[in-house]
Amino acid sequence: MPFVKDREILMYGYGVNALNTEHKCIMAVGRSVEGIFKGIQIPERQKGCVRGISPITGATFTPMPEGKVFFRFVTNFDPKMKVPYKILNWFSRKFAKGMFKMIEKKANKMAGSEHERR
Known about the structure:
By secondary structure, this protein is an alpha+beta fold. It has one domain: 2-Layer Sandwich (Alpha-D-Glucose-1,6-Bisphosphate, Chain A, domain 4), CATH 3.30.530. Helix content is 24%, strand content 38%. The protein has helices spanning 85-108, 114-117, and strands at 7-8, 11-18, 25-32, 36-37, 40-41, 50-51, 53-63, 69-78. A hairpin with a 2-residue loop joins strand 4 and strand 5 (40-41). The model has no long low-confidence stretch (mean pLDDT 86).
């Protein structure tokens, strides 16, 4: 998208399979990283780019009846832009929906694979 093409973010994240617990979901959690992280020097930002920050980002995928999935995406993201929160929140909802559609598309390609068996 033209108005965010000069933005980047470097994130560290992990996933948790909590389907067999009381929570019955899969969770992904992440945060942006800067400087030195786990002993690794984080690369300088690309020339002409502004690096946004996200102290916390998380998503849960909870299976529902009839093969549906409840998806929740929560983030505290600062793109380092002077944009009204109303627009940023709208963009975040569109981003989350687009991300879920990409995940769904990849998941549909896993039929008969080891990933589907798991």
